[in-house]
Specification:
36% of the residues lie in helices and 11% in strands. It contains 15 helices and twelve strands. The strands form three sheets. The protein has a seven-stranded mixed sheet, with helices on both faces. Strands 10-12-11 form a three-stranded antiparallel sheet, covered by helices on one side. It has a two-stranded antiparallel ribbon with strand order 8-9. α5 packs parallel to α10. The protein binds pyridoxal-5'-phosphate (PLP).
Length: 483
């Protein structure tokens, strides 16, 4: 990478980016506590012009890959395009400049928006109860299992086990453990679906819930889901569906109709709110009627005079999981997305997401191993075992994609597929972009056969090569130090 001077190195004494009015004479009261001009002079801040600051931050932003620069096929994460109209509504001052402690009477429009969003999600997923509080998928899961725990405890015992398929997202067993349950793995069958006989063996009246993902993380729709729900309900257990990713079903299938009791929706995946970089998410939770009394408050309700109000204490509420109404900015954006697509638009999202994933599946299956070769839903899981035998691991393939201008897919997940490469193109990519992506993966398969060392040294075009990811995560060095 060309070494650009960082902003501290551009500093020149006396150079300024903005002209501030001179300081007033200090006044009695608050000004006495403000730092004096001399103290500010001692702060080691860079003295730079406005254009230096702008260039510094724009340059930094360009070091990152983003959905606004190219395709981001990160399976399970639904990195779809975030339409800019969401940003327009999210910034409307009537929404962005209010305070959560304003009385309900002053914010009727906002409460109506939240009421409508609760209603739309309820209709889309097929559950009568919705809370918008959880701020991530994982927190939605936590809230959902806590509701189940509260309900079962009231019936006499919280029970001790949660059954979770071996294809589950890592957050599922983590959630079960955090909620005081022992998580028991259910093997997947040879067709990639949950093994019914294994459930028969494992299910007893000490099981609180079966926690599964539909479609599962192999990108396979669980065709026996209704049977699984019946089996669970027969022993008094609940079915939790990890609905982080609703992209294959939105507008087409309502999970509530299949017999599921609780499900979260990642608004930052299916419903296009900004995603990644540790920013705020939204993991709305949908529940069947029998779990509504346990929901965290407040939820938005409407009284007989058509006035919206925040219902703070549901009769058996598990308590709050977030302050106020959750990550409100994301809720506005998800609401905008649903309304701007409408009913037929939502259907076509699912149709195109599934079509795009199957297009990738069929066009690449001669070049990459496909352990579960059947119609997939919104994502497809290949295996890099053939390339691994030639000296190029799945990690090498993923890193090489960066050189071709694409974000790497999810790799080594789900855990049950060796050298897994999990691709989710999403519905927002054009045929032309998906073709370029496929051609890149074909070229990489050729490279693996011709000279796999190219792959092992990738990426060569990125600002940084391979990072020591474990150390970067455990001992991040986020501070500038002079060269
Ligand atoms: C993304 C995802 C989660 C976790 O969602 P977060 O918002 O990152 O907490 C859980 N399950 C599945 C299947 C997911 O794809």
């Amino acid at each position: 990478m060309k070494e650009e001077p960082v902003i501290y190195e551009l500093s020149s004494p006396g150079r300024v980016g903005v002209q501030l009015p001179p300081l007033r004479k200090p006044q009695k009261g608050i000004d006495e506590y403000l730092p004096t001009e001399e103290i500010r002079d001692e702060l080691p801040l860079p003295e730079v012009s406005q254009i230096d600051v702008v260039r510094h931050f724009v340059r930094l932003s360009q070091l990152n890959f983003s959905i606004d620069t190219d395709m981001y096929p990160l399976g399970s994460c639904t990195m779809k395009y975030n339409p800019k109209i969401n940003e327009v509504t999210g910034r409307l001052s009537g929404l962005s400049a209010i305070h959560p402690y304003q009385p309900d009477g002053q914010i009727q429009g906002v409460l109506k928006l939240l009421w409508n969003l609760q209603g739309l999600l309820s209709e889309i997923a097929g559950f009568p109860g919705v809370t918008l509080q959880p701020s991530a998928g994982a927190q939605g899961e936590f809230t959902g299992l806590m509701l189940i725990r509260a309900m079962l405890t009231e019936k006499g015992s919280p029970r001790s086990k949660v059954l979770i398929p071996d294809s589950a997202h890592g957050t599922n067993p983590a959630t079960a453990t955090m909620c005081g349950y022992k998580s028991i793995g259910i093997p997947s069958g040879p067709d990639g679906e949950i093994d019914i006989e294994a459930i028969e063996r494992l299910l007893d009246d000490d099981v609180a819930a079966i926690m599964m993902t539909v479609p599962n993380t192999l990108g396979v729709f669980e065709t026996r889901i209704e049977k699984v729900c019946d089996m669970a309900h027969t022993v008094g257990a609940q079915v939790y569906c990890d609905g982080a990713n609703m992209n294959a079903m939105v507008g087409r299938v309502r999970p509530g109709d299949l017999g599921i009791d609780v499900m979260h929706l990642n608004l930052h995946k299916t419903f296009s709110t900004p995603h990644g970089g540790g920013g705020p998410g939204a993991g709305a939770l949908c529940v069947k009627k029998h779990l509504i009394p346990y929901l965290p408050g407040p939820t938005v309700a409407i009284d007989k005079d058509d006035q919206y109000f925040r219902q703070h204490s549901l009769s058996k509420s598990i308590g709050k999981v977030h302050s106020n109404m959750g990550n409100f900015g994301n809720l506005i954006r998800a609401y905008t997305y649903i309304l701007s697509n409408g009913k037929s638009g939502l259907k076509s999202i699912a149709d195109n997401a599934v079509l795009n994933a199957n297009y990738v599946r069929v066009r690449l299956r001669d070049r990459y191993d496909l352990p579960f070769d059947r119609t997939c839903m919104h994502e497809v899981v290949f295996s890099g075992t053939r390339q691994k035998a030639l000296g190029a691991s799945t990690l090498d393939i993923a890193k090489r994609l960066i050189d071709y201008g694409f974000h790497p897919p999810t790799i080594y997940f789900p855990l049950i597929v060796p050298e897994a490469i999990m691709i989710e193109p999403t519905e927002t990519e054009s045929r032309e972009t998906i073709d370029r992506f496929i051609e890149a993966l074909v070229a990489i398969a050729d490279e693996a056969e011709f000279d796999s060392s190219i792959l092992r040294s990738a990426p060569v075009s990125a600002p940084l090569g391979r990072l020591d990811e474990a150390t970067a995560a455990r001992q991040p060095d986020l501070r500038y130090s002079p060269r």
